Amino acid sequence: MGKAVVFAAVSLDGYVARDDDVPGPLFDWYGNGDVEVTFSDEERVFRVTQATADFLRREAPGMAAMVCGRRLFDITDGWEGVPPNGEQVFVVTHRPADDWPYAGTAPFTFAPDVRSAIEQAKAFAGDRDVSLAPGDVAGQAVQLGLVDRVVLNLVPVVLGSGRPCFGAGGPAEILFEDPTVVVQGRRVLHLVHDVQR
């Protein structure tokens, strides 16, 4: 069985977006290099440094599915029906998007809670990994003991306030192992931590 992995671009003070949900400088590293890289959606091309490209090419291909919350789904309009990473997206919501233009045709599944979404995603993924979006979904998943690994793309900025990486309430204290991977990109430090068991 694959791993459940929180994958996030995060500020030094632990935020993944500003209060208005705009990531601001947190995503600048996706365009500050000259090496092209894509995830499963080959139409979304990023231009990063060689070190970041090598890191992403190691991490991204193992992701078969993504779990996100309804807020991120709404902000992105469900990426216009194309999963940003992996082949399937599982959206945690009590309000399925029946009026979404891509409903019924896009590889998106709506689940009532975090545990159900992750279980469905892992069943779909088999021995590949599942990416968990940061925010409330990640916080609940960590609290439930469903997270195996956290990949933080640490950006040297302090936002002061915003959307916390592990949600508004945040999980209880959880220990992680020392980083198994540390890669210095341009304006980003990539860190991979396994959950301490």
TrEMBL record:
Ranges of residues in domain Bacterial bifunctional deaminase-reductase C-terminal: 5-173
Top-level taxon in the UniProt lineage: Bacteria
Signal peptide bounds: none
A Pfam family hit: RibD_C
InterPro entries membership: DHFR-like_dom_sf (IPR024072), RibDG_C (IPR002734)
Protein name as annotated: Dihydrofolate reductase family protein
Organism, as annotated: Geodermatophilus maliterrae
